[in-house]
Write a structure and sequence with these properties.
Elements (H helix, E strand, L loop, with lengths): L1 H21 L8 E2 H8 L3 H13 L3 E4 L2 E4 L1 H11 L4 H16 L2 E8 L2 E8 L14 E3 L4 H9 L1 H10 L12 H14 L2 E4 L6 E9 L5 E10 L8 H18 L13
Helix pairs in contact: 2-3, 5-9, 6-7, 6-8
Length: 263
């Protein structure tokens, strides 16, 4: 029993250290001891002692009456981030989204007026909507493109400047109608599309945010309309939103960070 208590105590202390470090955010990189205590919910005396220990070991730096994440901690963390990239970080999320939804999961990045598939996990269904890494598509047609347009004002500028070409009778090429749709996308937190770029194709996508709250990528699923219609959106949207949140977290995003949206 004593050995069990001895093994548990260090874990509890580490958990408290974690609470303190997680109280610092991009929006509030400097906090007073009182603010740290409120954010963690720890007893004041315990918080003061732990903060003092973190400063002594270089995990926190003190400036007058405020504290911030220590430069020593940043330096120690650097080897852990070396060599990591977007595709590698998000790959496990793509595979889970594919398994949860049963459909092909894709990760997109933007280049000007276009979006490119940079990673995918292909559906195991015999009939699939075909995607390949490196596939380039317009922004204004398809759910992934609509997400870029909804959360990145530069994307909308580039798309309109390039011209809104019509691919099917369902492609939206009127700027006012497009803006109305983008407002709904932002309100919902995701976009869905049906036969906007290709007949018989459907998709559902959500934004992936980076460390400072910027839109870094878009994650989504694509399927034939024989398996995915508007009726399926309430079932599939939570899966895509959960994948987007997981991908954002893997990139360092924390809920509540400012996002670059179209006003």
């Amino acid at each position: 029993m004593a050995e069990e208590r001895g093994g548990t105590a260090p874990v509890l202390v580490l958990r408290k250290f974690k609470q303190i470090l997680e109280s610092f955010t991009i929006e509030e990189p400097e906090l007073t001891l009182q603010q740290i205590t409120r954010a963690t919910g720890l007893p004041a005396s315990t918080c003061q002692r732990l903060v003092h220990n973190l400063v002594r070991e270089g995990f926190l730096d003190r400036y007058d009456d405020t504290y911030r994440v220590g430069l020593g901690l940043v330096r120690w963390a650097a080897p852990g981030t070396f060599g990591l990239d977007l595709v590698r970080l998000v790959r496990p999320v793509l595979h889970k989204l594919r398994d949860d939804s049963g459909e092909t999961a894709c990760l997109y990045v933007r280049d000007g007026a276009f979006r490119t598939v940079v990673s995918l996990a292909e559906s195991r269904h015999p009939v699939i909507r075909l995607f390949v890494v490196g596939m380039v598509m317009p922004l204004h047609a398809g759910s992934a493109g609509k997400v870029f347009l909804a959360w990145d004002r530069l994307a909308l500028r580039d798309a309109v400047g390039h011209g809104l070409a019509r691919f099917t009778e369902h492609t939206i090429v009127d700027i006012d109608q497009l803006n109305q749709q983008l407002a709904q996308v932002r309100a919902d937190g995701y976009a869905s599309s049906f036969e906007e770029r290709d007949l018989g194709a459907a998709s559902l996508s959500a934004p992936v945010f980076g460390l400072t709250g910027e839109l870094s990528a878009v994650i989504g699923i694509g399927a034939p309309t024989q398996r995915m219609t508007a009726v399926d959106v309430p079932r599939l949207a939570p899966l895509v939103l959960a994948a987007a949140a997981a991908a954002s977290e893997r990139l360092g995003y924390r809920a509540g960070m400012a996002r670059d949206v179209i006003g």
